[in-house]
Amino acid sequence: GVCWTGSWCTNGTTIPDPCAPGTYNPAQGSSHPSACIPCEPGRYCPTQRMGQAAQQLPKCAAGFYCTGGDVSPYARQCPAGAYCEEGSAYPEACPPGTFGEWAGSTNVSDCRACPPGYYCPYANMTAPAGECDAGW
Predict the structure, then answer these.
(1) What pTM was estimated for this model as a whole?
(2) Which pairing describes strands 64-65 and 37-38: parallel, antiparallel, or unpaired?
(3) How is residue 131 annotated by DSSP?
(4) What is the pLDDT at residue 11?
(5) Taking the CB of the first residue and of the last residue of the chain, which one, N or C, has fewer CB atoms within 10 A?
(6) For position 45, what pLDDT does the model report?
(7) Is residue 72 packed enough to be buried (19+ CB in 10 Å), middle (13-18) or exposed (0-12)?
């Protein structure tokens, strides 16, 4: 027999040692534990013996991000000032002119427009920077 995907077999055996949660191995016939590689950023590997191709691994949940080697779709909550769509490897900053006051945002539409009379000059802001000067 051939050593299965999602595992590795000591040289000369077909007794599989499963890849640990947080790792996967899409190749058959692996003979070393290093064949189990950390789950891709933006995706998670919740159980042992994950053997599918990287693009078939489950995606991190919207409002959260996964930096690699994660076992949960809720690895890290998206911080205020940013948003995280499904499958995010890192938070996307709210653009200049907007702010994001809440953690866990899932879309750029969750970034609020800076209100009239206030300014938001930078990306990643969690509140307006301040009031505009009189007459502006």
Answers:
(1) 0.89
(2) unpaired
(3) E
(4) 82
(5) C
(6) 97
(7) middle
